[in-house]
């Protein structure tokens, strides 16, 4: 089955370029294009894409607000779109807010074509699009600037001691392989723990588990 994509960007040439590139890939199909956030919300509801490429900065309704509206609009669990934010700078002021709104990853607008294609595939597969090093650098910076969520710690109550250890290491930006080496367990076991952690804390993906680790105080900023 094809991965369906909705592109939201206020620049027509950008939309056209992304659409041409993605439509040329096996297993990817662009189903719609939106010129602003409001249109993106409307088209997402009607087309139910697997992935939305969402520009952060758009007139009227920006990408962050559009992301909130899309993810809060009551999609069936199996059809909730993954939001891939398009940014001009890798540490855009809106990054943290976009993550809190539910975005699953970020891509620079000057990324290579193959990086865009890979990003869509990664997001569609349910993975978060940030390497451990980028996660560590970006989330640490933005978490330090935001007040802690008082209710975040309560979401950790059902974790076992081992699962809390895994969440701490996720929060520090370690990959599954690095977590396995740190805890002296098999990487497949780590994957199992990660899945349980995400389910128990209600995190959409790994990025949102990182945010929770910081917001709850489980991981301290440097």
UniProtKB/TrEMBL annotation:
Domain HTH luxR-type: 152-217
Entry's Gene Ontology molecular function annotations: DNA binding
Pfam family, one: GerE
Record's keyword terms, sorted: DNA-binding, Phosphoprotein, Transcription, Transcription regulation
Domain Response regulatory: 4-124
Domain of life: Bacteria
Gene3D superfamilies per record: 3.40.50.2300
Modified residues (4-aspartylphosphate): 55
GO BP annotations, alphabetical order: phosphorelay signal transduction system; regulation of DNA-templated transcription
SMART domains hit by this protein: HTH_LUXR, REC
InterPro entries found in the cross-reference section: CheY-like_superfamily, NreC/VraR/RcsB-like_REC, Sig_transdc_resp-reg_C-effctor, Sig_transdc_resp-reg_receiver, Tscrpt_reg_LuxR_C, WalR-like
PANTHER family: TRANSCRIPTIONAL REGULATORY PROTEIN NARL-RELATED (PTHR43214:SF24), TWO-COMPONENT RESPONSE REGULATOR (PTHR43214)
Name of the protein in its database record: DNA-binding NarL/FixJ family response regulator
